[in-house]
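Whether sequence alone determines local backbone shape is best considered at the level of individual chains. The sequence in question and its structure tokens are set out directly beneath this paragraph.

===
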Amino acid sequence: MLAETKLDTLSAIYQRRAVRGYTAEKIEKATIEQLLDAAVHAPTAVHREPWAFVVIQNKERLRQYSDRAKSLLLAQQEATSFFRAAEPQALAVLSDPNFNIFYDAGTLVVIGCKARGPFVEADCWLAAENLMLAATARGLGTCCIGFAVAVLNTPDVKRELGIPEAGAAVAPIIVGVPKGPIPAGTRKAPVVLSWVS
């Protein structure tokens, strides 16, 4: 069973990492509901709260979406050109039939919207950060899965997941119990383009 962890906000921010290895332990519904509640407390433009959520805890379904996502990305010239230039190893990974874009995590939380509009995507990403920080504070790992966005927005998958035609999947985030310790990370110093006093 997952041990309850309590972190202050800055500790959660500095300890959050993209986790790509998970145990088989299933996250309980009550825990997911707490993470969703943290997500909806994010800032939102003109108090619209445009986000909506899909939770997938079916590993077979996640594997199907992973395989479809890899095929879709490999078929897109724009994606393959980007990977060839910026992340050449990504093409090899996407071609590996054993690679699961969800890293075998048992839970995928898709933060999306029922309709698009100004600031909707920004609001969804703010909700995503709240969810990830809340998960970190509970000792859980998370990772944003950009590889999944295209497949989750295909018409048939949107129908399967109850995402309205006018809506979209914005931020797919896996959640789970990390397999082993999470290594510390570093970031570059902030780039301040100007400081007007």
